[in-house]
Amino acid sequence: MARAKETVPEINLSDSQYYFNRELSWLEFNRRVLHEALDARTLLLERLKFLAIFSSNLDEFFMVRVAALKQQVEAGVSTLTPDGRTPPEQLDAISQVLRPMVVEQHRHFEQVLRPALIEHGVYLLNYIDLSQEQRLYLQDFYEKRIFPVLTPLAVDPGHPFPFISNLSLNLAVVVKDPETEEEHFARVKVPSSLPRFVTFPPELRQVDGKSSLWMGVPLEQVIGHNLETLFPGMNIQEYYLFRITRDADLEIAEDDADDLLLTIEQELRKRRLGGSVVRLEVQTAMPETVRDTLMQEMKITSSETYEIDGMLNLKDLMALMALPLPHLKDSPRRPVIPPRLRSIGEYPTKSGEGEEERDFFTVIRNGDLLVHHPYYSFSLSVQRFIQFAAQDPDVLAIKMTLYRTSGDSPIVSALIAAAENGKQVVALVELKARFDEENNINWARRLEQAGVHVVYGLVGLKTHTKVVLVVRQEGDRIRRYVHVGTGNYNYKTARLYTDLGLLSCREELGADLTDLFNYLTGYSRQRAYRKLLVSPVNMRDRMTALIRREAEHCKNGNSGRIIAKMNSLVDPQIIATLYEASRAGVQIDLIVRGICCLRPGVPHVSENIRVISIVGRYLEHSRIFYFQNNGEEELYIGSADWMTRNLDRRVEAVTPIDDPAIAKDLQEILAILLSDNRQAWDLQPDGSYVQRKPPAGEPERSAQTILTDMALSMGSVVH
């Protein structure tokens, strides 16, 4: 007798129990970053680096995400998140989750890493541990190098409480007037223009008769033990360190902005001052009276105050990465030149010259090219492609988007050179790229001065897509060359972020990018693209259809398979569609580095979905989407995560991969990532992550190490 097919129960896939909170999921990502600092397998200076990254990440989290929640609370917003929380409930949950993490971070630094540094001749000392000779040296250093920069600010009826700048380190000083016996409060800012650590010369770095490699003292302690010079005639009672974080997100009413560039410049001036205070960090030893004074003046509560037992602002530990201790740092990994680009000369050749692949255009005409950074050199692939185009006499036009780029960008210099060479150059500079606004404004002005057509994107939308279009005259025809990438055109971050890029001259991609740039620079209601998935035009619908197609294959008795790699998975509609596919039997593997609001492994909902996160030497930044499609596999790469902002409020582009060899390469990359048992973490149904460990007798497999070795075996090392 035939076995009856199991019926799938009716379930409301919008139910809050099936979604993780976005902010709490981000905190879990930062916990994985912290774990790299706690993990004894990580080299010592790299552990300090991860502590610094953890702190830097938290600063931005408070400046943007916590600040936004506070604004919602103040505005009386009561809207529930997909996981069913109000803004006040989210703030409470953030505080409860984060406080133990911060305690663990500082405890580990003070009790584990600081002593470990000493074993390698690196002494980060407290002032009270110094010898008399060292104190005399610091006193002289203070008088000559520090004292002239300091400004003591009194707080009394004649001196209102001073403005405390965002992320500044400050001393709260209590002094007593010996004549009146009155106590007074003052603030001294630790100058950010000076190095955080004051170091000793070799002759003063002696420990037990041996010279140490490095010895230093936190700058704030040097100031704190010389405060009598700032308050002569007063008795210094005590001093305590504190630090604040302010709302730093820009509020831009684009519809009312006649000049977007000028509007953002004005908002940047406000950011330098900072908005309302969203976090106060104080030393544990600070008495309640001083703490209450600060909280009252900052207009914050105890729930927004974090006690720190140890040194504040650990992101300054990044400075110790410069120490000459190569055995305590990851060994340098030089990128390689992709095999097909090895024969390219330094300068472009004339159209049709020779049959060998002597320039980029010949290489691309002979077949699509995939570049995988940082394993393949960004400077000698994508950057060089743009530099070639700028110098090539047959290139008529270059159009590209710039979301983030470096302060000394060779690509921007190439665009300027192209304009000076008489080519039509269009640069879409995204002025609203968070915390890069000022840098982008500077580049926009320089580009405009060189004759580049600079546009700032569309009202209400950030242009996040990473695309280049090169138009070239070849004989009696015009050919278009394109680059569609997953990462920014920044050679510095290309050494630290894993990203992918497709170089192609496929006619349909060139036509699509022409339409996309016309959409970005002119007036257009472009609604259809030949190949590209473009947000906010067709990407949401196409991604949803691709997921549902896999479900249909399962319903028709075939198998379904999805593998997707991205930075964040947040969008409730996409998550619900993935749940539907899982319920239909589709096997789904998700590689999500950061935020993941999807709850995997829930019976009858997501039992066919697995989620991993990889946190390692490089920041996983590439986006890859694989759909089995009943044997006719489809793969895509591009700039978009499955987040509501990427699908609805940003201009994004994702390209299909039509070259079978490249499709195979991408599948191999995905398989390597999924097999990682060193830096991969499995997301559990309760929202926690468990780091993978190889079973007994099985070797460690770090995906990033494997991909590095593969690139080295295929390409030429860049020196």
Automatic annotation (TrEMBL):
Mg(2+) binds at R404, R434. The keyword Transferase applies. It holds the Pfam family PP_kinase. ATP binds at N57, Y497, R593, H621. Residues 19-124 form the Polyphosphate kinase N-terminal domain. Its EC number is 2.7.4.1. The active site is at H464. GO terms for molecular function: ATP binding; metal ion binding; polyphosphate kinase activity. It catalyses: [phosphate](n) + ATP = [phosphate](n+1) + ADP. Its cofactor is Mg(2+). GO terms for cellular component: polyphosphate kinase complex. InterPro entries: PP_kinase, PP_kinase_C_1, PP_kinase_middle, PP_kinase_middle_dom_sf, PPK_C_dom2, PPK_N_dom, PPK_N_dom_sf. An intermediate of this reaction is the autophosphorylated ppk in which a phosphate is covalently linked to a histidine residue through a N-P bond. It is an enzyme of class 2 (transferase). One of its GO terms (biological process) is polyphosphate biosynthetic process. Residues 133-320 form the Polyphosphate kinase middle domain. Residues 360-525, 532-704 form the Polyphosphate kinase C-terminal domain. Keywords: ATP-binding, Kinase, Magnesium, Metal-binding, Nucleotide-binding, Phosphoprotein, Transferase. Belongs to the polyphosphate kinase 1 (PPK1) family. NCBIfam families: poly_P_kin (TIGR03705), PRK05443.1-1 (NF003917), PRK05443.1-2 (NF003918), PRK05443.2-2 (NF003921). HAMAP family: Polyphosphate_kinase (MF_00347). Catalyzes the reversible transfer of the terminal phosphate of ATP to form a long-chain polyphosphate (polyP). This is Polyphosphate kinase. It comes from Leptolyngbya sp. NK1-12.
